[in-house]
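User:
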Amino acid sequence: MKLLVLGATGHIGREVVDLGLARGHVITAYVRSPEKMTRRESNLIVTAGDALDVDRLSEALPGHDAVVSALGLRARLALRPSSFMAESMANTVSAMQRAGVQRLGAVSAAVLFPMRGAFYAFFRWLLRHHARDLNAMESVIQATDLVWTIARPPRLVNGTETTPRLVVDGLPSGARSVSYRSVAAFLLNCLERDEHRRQIVGIAK
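Assistant: Predicted structure:
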């Protein structure tokens, strides 16, 4: 497959690039800072651009089979009001529609699940601004006719595992964390196997 990756210099994005190349895919890393992409491989295309620039993104997309959005906010920014996730996704789906690309895999967060208990309640309060932005982002995706998959992971950690537990429209029992690599593997699996079409999936180790 030929995949365009947004957020390719972030934790999940780097894992998507790494696993995608290892699986033989052609990867376009669409990034604001190309100098941060230190890998040089024949199957890796590095394209400079901003996720908020719909025209530039539209130019980069033709010929791709799917888009992986691994965009996110730095931890301190996630505690403040923001509309970046929703705005960048609105531009992404608009560019996909212009380019005729139908398949999308996107990373959201488990904070949007209505889980009970003090642990989840604390994080819903702490990340309330980010949750509002992510909810708007998901609404943008769900309003389209694209074939999408949304991954909602809990706390993201380093790790090498690639076989997480999955629940559609919920979070696996006792979920507390999942590795960046697991999320990347899940998204790639969905695109390769055409699984979890138009589904929100909770993911955890």
